[in-house]
Amino acid sequence: MGFSDFHGNAETVHRLRDMLARERFPHAVILSGARGSGKYTLALMLAQALNCLTPTETDGLPDFCGQCANCLRIAQAADLDARFAEAVETRDGMRETDKKDTRLFVQTHPDVLIIPPDPPQMMIKVDQVRRVIETIYYRPSEARERVYIFTDSAFMKEAANSLLKVLEEPPQFATIFLLSENPGELLPTIRSRAAAFALAASPVEEVERYLAKHRPEWKPQQRNLVARLCEGALGRARGFDLDSYVAARADALTMLNSALLGGEHSALFKITESYRAGAEGRQKTEHLLRTLYSLLRDLIFLNSGAPGLVHNTDIQSQLLRLAEVADFDWITAASDRLAEVERGMRRNLLRTLSLDAFELALEKGA
Ligand SMILES: [Zn+2]
After folding, report:
1. How far apart are the CA of 359 and the centre of ligand 1, in A?
2. Cβ atoms 255, 213 nearer than 8 A
3. Which residues have CB atoms below 5 A from the ion given as ligand 1?
4. Sign of torsion, CA 246 250 251 253?
5. What is the pTM of this model?
């Protein structure tokens, strides 16, 4: 266990570790990158390296053992989704009056506080930043360095202003990590007080090699598909729900086949029938819409002579047949119809009705 378990972005990791080595690690660090690019994993590793009780060196740079009391407790926060769900559940179980005053945190070590966006708005709130301010100027109790990890850059205005005050007087024994998919969301005054590092997407081949190790049950063709769909985000690729995707895509293909090539109507009827009930049906419909977009996008790439950009590489021959009959105008109109269905879903119209309408619109030549 150590930095060698972090995949991709070797140069950025090297620079961060080099700052650890020179004991010039910044008080505030922005880690930016797409969902699944490893921002959170890297922040936790750095928190471990800052606080490891038996620090080691690899490649001449600081590393962490992964086994001491500090490393182990910090690592318990690694599954952020699970820890977040637990925190939400605990709060939901509280009395109404307490619920209102309880802000969400993930904490598995007394000196490492993880601050996720607070539902239902999914934004960082001022009371969460207040908790940071209450503790950040005290010496850590069991670590060398207090660590705060904001897992999202969507701050309520007052919360952002409070954070800015902390950054204006950086505390001595603390490091703040700000994770962001879009650092432009952060106040410029916050950005100017933090050192920023961007985690780039990994090339398709690198994701494929990574998946060969972590999802050996997938065939090479499936690994290539997932690598392309996840656009270089290793974390997303590793946890990708391939079965759901393939199921939704089969339905999406039936719809496109029926519209463009006059495929079987009974098959189509079965599909729209199966998208009826409740929350589960809603999620299923969302998957279907996403895969429809993904297929339409691939058709555009095929029609504009850029097959290298196609995501759904494993069904290329089927896509080629569709691309022959779908011209650019048809694809554009179909995308517009899809957007309408999505708007309808947001307004909570009957889902099957709008799916039927979509299919009908497609058949009329959109
Ligand atoms: Zn350790």
Report:
1. 57
2. no
3. 52, 64-65, 68, 71
4. positive
5. 0.79
